């Protein structure tokens, strides 16, 4: 067996295959990581000699030796399936005999409205507004930070989320209590944009080659990030100075600090506010299909997990529809 082989050509092709499908950078990072782990496991076996037995052994190794979660094992499977099909030009065939990681029941952490307010009250701008959007609109952190000025329709009271998970678009209502604060943020971005342009700014980072279609889009106000980064980034190839959006890690650290300061007894992350959004709507008797649409879930079964996060009503407490006001 040939070992110690370079996989650089395959990694380059993996990147090309991911980019041509317009998958997210996170998907590329994840798929590349699992391919690298397979390379290590097989001692850099020549990619041309890889077969389904290598994958079986690797997946079993993850479950038995590494004791990874079921979701991590499934992620590894999907990544390697893509790697085999689109990079190596091979089919998996039938995968049998793999030890499956056990899926443990997990109930999402949900904060009360008071706990949400307690956390937000000890946060500073712009992180406090980010968290208000996570909770008020049910956004994922990446969706929130990827918002641009043109995503907001204040007249209609609607926020459009582009390229959410699975590259899906959706609309959600803008919380009325946040409108004034959101407009103040728009004004801040406008002033920053004016300053940037006067300093020879080359524009915001764009996506999916849209800049080739609309050459001036990067400098237009409507394409600026709603939560812009504090500093400009120099593009190594072109020596241009562009602005990226506020980094996820800054928000995550701010949330962790605020949770500790608010003395919560729960482990809360950015995603906890999305869980709380769904659970509180369910508790307010919104139907599950509406919540599914607002969250952007493809399958209602994914949304059904939130039925476990709200108090159940006993038979004695149940009412006839005629008695419900």
Primary descriptors:
single chain; 325 residues; mainly alpha; three-stranded antiparallel beta sheet; two-stranded antiparallel sheet; 13 helices; globular
How would you describe the overall organization of this protein?
With 325 residues, the protein is mainly alpha-helical. Helix content is 46%, strand content 7%. The chain is built from 13 helices and five strands. A hairpin with an 8-residue loop joins strand 2 and strand 3. The longest helix is centred in the middle third of the chain and has 20 residues. The radius of gyration is 23 Å and the shape is globular. 26% of the residues are buried.
Question: What's the short version?
Answer:
The protein is mostly helical. The chain has helices spanning 8-20, 25-41, 52-64, 70-88, 113-121, 127-137, 141-145, 179-198, 210-213, 248-261, 270-283, 288-295, 300-303, and strands at residues 152-153, 158-161, 170-173, 228-234, 241-245.
Main beta-sheet annotation? 3 strands, antiparallel
Share of residues in strands: 5-15%
Ranges where pLDDT stays below 50 over 5 or more residues in a row are none
Based on helices, strands and strand pairing, what is the structural class? mainly alpha
Order of helices and strands: HHHHHHHEEEHHEEHHHH
Note the overall shape: globular
Give the helix level as a range of percent: 40-55%
Which strand order does the major sheet show? 1-2-3
Task: Average the pLDDT over all residues and give the rounded result.
Answer: 89
SS field, number of helical segments: 13
- Per DSSP E runs of 2 or more residues, the count of β-strands stands at 5
What is the radius of gyration? 23 Å
Distance between the termini: 73 Å
């Amino acid at each position: 067996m040939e070992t110690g082989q370079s996989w650089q050509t395959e990694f380059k092709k993996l990147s090309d295959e991911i980019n041509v499908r317009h998958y997210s950078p996170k998907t590329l990072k994840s798929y590349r990581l699992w391919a690298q782990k397979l390379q290590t496991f097989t001692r850099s076996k020549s990619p041309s000699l890889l077969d389904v037995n290598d994958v079986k052994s690797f997946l079993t190794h993850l479950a038995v030796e590494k004791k990874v979660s079921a979701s991590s094992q499934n992620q590894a499977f999907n990544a390697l399936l893509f790697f085999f099909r689109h990079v190596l030009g091979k089919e998996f065939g039938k995968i049998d005999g793999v030890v499956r990681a056990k899926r443990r029941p997990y109930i999402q952490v949900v904060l009360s409205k008071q706990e949400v307010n307690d956390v937000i009250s000890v946060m500073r701008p712009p992180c406090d507004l980010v968290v208000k959007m996570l909770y008020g609109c049910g956004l994922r952190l990446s969706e929130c930070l990827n918002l641009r000025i043109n995503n907001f329709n204040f007249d209609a009271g609607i926020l459009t989320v582009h390229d959410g998970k699975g590259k899906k678009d959706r609309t959600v209502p803008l919380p009325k209590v946040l409108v004034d604060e959101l407009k103040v943020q728009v004004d801040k971005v406008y002033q920053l944009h004016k300053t940037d342009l006067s300093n020879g700014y080359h524009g915001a980072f764009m996506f999916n080659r849209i800049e080739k279609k609309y050459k001036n889009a990067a400098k237009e106000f409507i394409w600026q990030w709603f939560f812009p980064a504090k500093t400009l980034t120099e593009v190594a190839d072109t020596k241009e100075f562009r602005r990226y959006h506020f980094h996820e890690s800054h928000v995550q650290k701010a949330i962790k600090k605020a949770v500790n300061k608010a003395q919560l007894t729960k482990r809360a992350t950015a995603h906890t506010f999305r869980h709380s959004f769904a659970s509180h709507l369910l508790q307010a008797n919104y139907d599950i299909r509406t919540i599914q649409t607002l969250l952007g879930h493809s399958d209602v079964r994914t949304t059904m997990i939130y039925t476990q996060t709200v108090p159940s009503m006993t038979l004695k407490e149940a009412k006839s529809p005629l008695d419900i006001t």
